[in-house]
Amino acid sequence: MVAAMADNKKQGNGLGGGLGDLVKAESMIQLAIALPAGCLIGWLLGSWADRHFHQGWIGILGIVLGAVGGFIQIFATASRYLKRGS
How many CA atoms lie within 13 A of 6 on its CB side? Predict the structure, then answer.
């Protein structure tokens, strides 16, 4: 869907008005959700691994790795957004 929208912009049709605003809003929502979702998924997987391996530190490692993954997603989305020039 995004590729089709990018093709429309290249052809001169553009994403003006409401549709362009929705695309920008979707990008901002991705940025807002990436870090908490990464931490939550990391914590859930880490706590499962804690119970499975009878350890107490893997949940913390899961949160940290989830946060790193969230930051990577934020930077990738932001660089794509800035590269697009919007």
Answer: 9
Domain ranges of the chain: 27-86
- pLDDT (average), residues 18-42: 88
Whether the model pTM is above 0.85: no
Quote the Cα angle for 73-11-17, to 5°: 65
**Inter-residue long-range contacts of 41-48, CB under 8 Å, 24+ positions, other chains counted:** 41/66, 42/66, 42/67, 42/69
- The answer to whether 50 and 56 are in contact (CB under 8 A) is yes
